[in-house]
Design goal:
By secondary structure, this protein is mainly alpha-helical. The chain is built from 6 helices and 3 strands; from the N terminus they run H-H-E-H-H-E-E-H-H.
Amino acid sequence: MTKRIADDCVATREVLNRVGDKWSVLVIVNLGDGTLRFSDLKRAIEGISQRMLTLTLRSLERDGLVRRTVLPTTPPRVDYDLTRLGRTLLEPVTGLAVWAQRHSPDVQRARDTFDRAARETPRAGGG
């Protein structure tokens, strides 16, 4: 494998690790409708902890996908929205989210079938 291909693989893996995790996808999809405050995002994303939302937003901000704006009010107001780069992710990420919702019953059936077969027939080898 050439160094360029290896470098491309590393770059692709790093980007997919960021935008492919479940919390990042949900944050991006929710911010696709416009600017939100932290508390609005927390309410909109069922099951995310405050710490995980903070870490996810910070990572997305670091990657240039989300903009954090502190407004000089009392108390300070913090808004989040997608950057121009972040908006380019909306179509593929929304497509992935729609696919997941549409096909989750199929995936669950496949898992159940696989698990039943695995219990009935132990697998040989390393996998």
